[in-house]
Amino acid sequence: MTTSPPRTPPRPARRRASQGRTALYFLAPALLALVVLRLLPAAMALVSSARHHSLVDGTTTFVGLGNYTDLFSDSQFWQSVRVTLLFSLVINPLQVLIALGLAVLLGRRFAGVRFWRSLVFAPIAVPPAVSAVIWGILYRPEGPLNAILGALGIPPQPFLTSSEQALFALIVLMSWVGVGYWMMFLIAGLQDIPQECYDAAAVDGASAWQRFFHVTLPLLRRPLAFVLVADTVANFLVFAPVQLLTRGGPDGSTNLMMYDVFRRAYSVGDINFAQAEVVVLVAITLAVVVVQFRMMQGKGEE
């Protein structure tokens, strides 16, 4: 009776190649979506930004960096950059700090905590256009907010009709919309922190504030970095409230870059010029995100 020789196990290189193909099959739909929905439009925008379409004779010509040269010499563009950076400088830390405070408060277990989480999270389920309409009613001169201020003895405020208050009125609106969404990410991060870390700190005599600063914040670094970066990108793309409530006014005080792109593309009719501003907006966003990653990076990760 003959016995067949034992099968030799597959070589490590062949096994790795098989695993790589399997992983590629699973990643293929996501990679295809990334190429079609992200990379290809970005490449098309970059190419389009180097062209100019004449509305007089309908011809399209290659102008290279001409659109960027004209853009950087446009005072209205620089005003939109300043407004966007001021908007981001105020709203990003404001939303993250409020979301963190709510996450710490509502991350605990007590009666009715799910109801309060749902209540804070609810605004994100409302479309941005609907939220803008709601706050537009609240901000009216004869609206509920001024009625409350009048009951407190405070004179009526112009809100959206004031060049000094309109941007901050939008910040309040967008914070009401976004804080609950970012809170949920931070609650998930808090729940991943082992209870043993808090127990050890309590045994060492650490107070509640010391546990927060020396245990919670260091172990929550990665979720905080994600929330800060994602919040920054989202706020650079704010459009609907500006379009519905202020249209960039008064006096350009709410002319965020995303709205300025829309205005140039569809009000002025210069698509190629707007594409150049889109490229600049993406570059500014990436630069801010890189700086944030460097600031949030721990010393042990460098």
TrEMBL record:
Transmembrane stretches, start-end: 24-47, 85-107, 119-139, 166-188, 224-245, 265-291
Membrane topology classification: Multi-pass membrane protein
Superkingdom of this protein's organism: Bacteria
ABC transmembrane type-1 domain mapped to chain residues: 81-292
PROSITE patterns: ABC_TM1
UniProt-annotated location(s): Cell membrane
CDD domains: TM_PBP2
PANTHER family on file: ABC TRANSPORTER PERMEASE PROTEIN, INNER MEMBRANE ABC TRANSPORTER PERMEASE PROTEIN YCJO
Family: Belongs to the binding-protein-dependent transport system permease family.
Protein name per its UniProtKB record: Carbohydrate ABC transporter permease
